[in-house]
Amino acid sequence: MKVFATTLNCYKTQFYHNTTFDWFSENLTSSLKRDPNHLPDLIAIAFQEFLPLDKAFGYGDEEYETSIGNMLLKAIDQGMQDFFTQSLLERGSKKTAKKMKAITFKLVKMTRHVGNALFIFSHQNLIPSEISVDRLGLGWFWLGNKGAVAIRLVFEGENRDGKALKWTVCFLSCHLDANKTDSQARNHQFQELASKINFPEYSGLSNKKYSSLEEQDAIVLMGDLNYRVYDSSKSAQELIAHYHSGQIEELQVFDQLSQEFSRKSGFLSQFYEAPINFLPTYKVIPGTGKLDSSRIPSWCDRILISSPLLCL
């Protein structure tokens, strides 16, 4: 199963302009161009700080949430159409382009809890037999300024021998503790996700109940995980100098999440992520593309996957 996933911290700002959606459709197109055979079955978009605090802790903004879902769907269609057009121009296969152009997506589920939001879109021919949602507040009094939302999809099908198959795919949008020097609070919150996120039991083909997060066949965990680049023996100026010199590998040595992966302990041990081949995106000043020199550059926004069943 092929998945296109992305995550964005909105900084408590509602966006009605097209910039974000243009960015999303352009990234979808470029991803498809890198691997034309990687047409996604599922598209997942995670947001953190999705609403201003008054709305996030209040009654939300259902009209805004609906409009974002519609605009994302439009951006997906635009990204796919741009790819189809380019494929036709570059490869000249009208038959292939016509077949690909017929592919459409639909919003299968959206959920939000305080500032975390998650939108899942599926290929027109991929219909989950069951959809479940859970939400978890973390942080101060578990109010949800930090926390997670989760959507579990159940799929049914057959293997090549005609034997019935059932499997689950779970997506999470997370926002974890922001302590820049100590990652223990974030590690603890990961364990809370594992123990407190739960779904209704369903009758799979194994003896598993599929209710806990760890029992799911595949998990895609996205969000502002807030793991930082930090080392007590290095000054902020030294780490910022690595950033300005484009020294990705030198910075990665001090990446807290990479260090946690190497320890292979707890809930985190079942996840992995694609190689990081870009400079840190935290903290870039919104609208400028420039680094906030008062912060140590870090890879706060991450996408983790738990199973080789998924091609991300």
TrEMBL record:
It comes from the Eukaryota. This is Uncharacterized protein. It comes from Entomophthora muscae.
